[in-house]
Amino acid sequence: MSEENKNDVVTGASETIDASSGSSMLEHEEPKKEEATSPWPGPKGMIPVTSGKADDANVHNRVFLDNILVEMRVIDSVEPDLTTTILGRKYASPLMPAAVSHLNKVLSDKTRKPMQEKAMAARNMDLLNWIGMETNEEYGEIVSQGGDTIRIIKPFADHHKILDEIKFAEDHGAVAVGIDIDHIAGKNGKYDVVDGIPLGSITMDDLKHYAASTKLPFIAKGVLSVSDALKARQAGCKAIVVSHHHGRVPFGVPPLAVLPDIKKALAGSGMEIYADGSLMTGYDAYKALAMGADAVLIGRGILSELLQSGTKAVEDKLKQMNEQLAEMMMYTSVKDTKSFDPSVLHY
Ligand SMILES: Cc1cc2nc3c(=O)[nH]c(=O)nc-3n(C[C@H](O)[C@H](O)[C@H](O)COP(=O)(O)O)c2cc1C
C-alpha cells in the first residue's frame, strides 16, 4: 500500500491518503464522541443514560414540567385526602413505583435485591407497585414480598412467551398486566433485542388477542398519541400509560403535553390513564394529576434512593413526594384525588 502525506489547508492537520483506495483519514485525533452519562449508580445498558441534548426526550420533559406554573386557591382549602382508587382497589396515594427491571443485576453487593426492596417499600406504603421485564421465576420471587403488582411484559417476537407471562402474572395475583408497546425499536432501526430475546411488532390484532386472553385488566404502556390511545381502547385495554419510557423515542414529545388531548379522546371510555416521565417530586406529580392522569408512575425519582440505600430510602422519598403533592393540593383547594382541576395550571 502506498501512502502520501499532505497538509489540510484549513486546519493544518496532516492527512494520510491511501493512494490505492483513494480513502483518506485525518491523522490528528478524531474529536471524541461525547459519552452519554448516567446520573444513577449501576452499569450502562441497564441504567438509563442521558445525552442531555435535544434528541433526549427527558430534556423536553423537564423544560415542559418546569414551565407549568400554578395559581393559588386557598380560601376554604383543607388538608387533602390522598387515597386513590386504581382499577377498583384503594391505595394510600396516586404515586406508583414504576415498572423497572433488571435491578437485581446492577449492584456489586449481590446480597441486595433492589427489585424486592422496591416491592417492600410499595407494600409498606400501601402503593401499587409495577414490575417490568423479569423472567417468570424472578417475577415470582419479587411478588412473594406481598403487596399489589402490575406486570408489564415486553413486546416479545414470540407471542407464546407473552401469553405465558400473562398467565403467570394472573396465577400470581397481579392486579393487571400489560405490554410496553413503546419498546419495539432498537437503536439500529430493527426490532430491539433485550437480554438476547428478540422483540417484535404489536399489531391491533395482537393487542386484542392479549387483552382478551386474560381476566385481568390489560394495559398499553407507552402511549404518546391520540391515535395509539384510540387503538388501545379499540383493542380492549382497560388503561394506558402516557409515557415515552424515559426517552426511548428521540425528540419524544413530553407525555404531559399530549395527556390533555388523550384524556379528551378517551372521555366516556371508562379507561384509566396513568402518566410518567421525569416526575421527580410531588410537585411534578401534582402537575401530571392536574393535567388529567388518574395516577402516576415514579421511576427515576426513586432510583438513586433504591440503588444506594434500599427500602427505607425509597419510602422516605415517596413520603416526601406525598407531602409535596398534598402541599400543592392544599394551595389549590384540591380536597382529594378525584378533584384535580387543570384550570389552576398556567403554561
Ligand atoms: C432501570 C429501568 C428499567 C426499566 N425497565 C422497564 C421495563 O422493563 N418495562 C417497562 O415498561 N418500563 C421500564 N422502564 C421505564 C419506566 O417504567 C418508566 O416508564 C420510565 O422510567 C419513565 O418514568 P421516570 O421518568 O419516572 O423514570 C424502566 C426504567 C428504568 C429506570
Automatic annotation (TrEMBL):
Record domain FMN hydroxy acid dehydrogenase: where: 20-347
Named cofactor requirement(s): FMN
InterPro entries, alphabetized: Aldolase_TIM, FMN-dep_DH, FMN_HAD
SUPFAM superfamilies: FMN-linked oxidoreductases
Keyword Metal-binding: no
Domain of life from the UniProt record: Bacteria
Keywords annotated in UniProt: Flavoprotein, FMN, Oxidoreductase
Residue stretches of biased makeup (Polar residues): 13-24
Basic and acidic residues bias spans: 26-36
GO MF, one annotated term: oxidoreductase activity
Region (Disordered): 1-53
Pfam families named among the record's database cross-references: FMN_dh
PANTHER family: 2-HYDROXYACID OXIDASE 1 (PTHR10578:SF107), S -2-HYDROXY-ACID OXIDASE-RELATED (PTHR10578)
The protein's name: FMN-dependent dehydrogenase
Organism expressing this protein natively: Lactobacillus amylovorus subsp. animalium
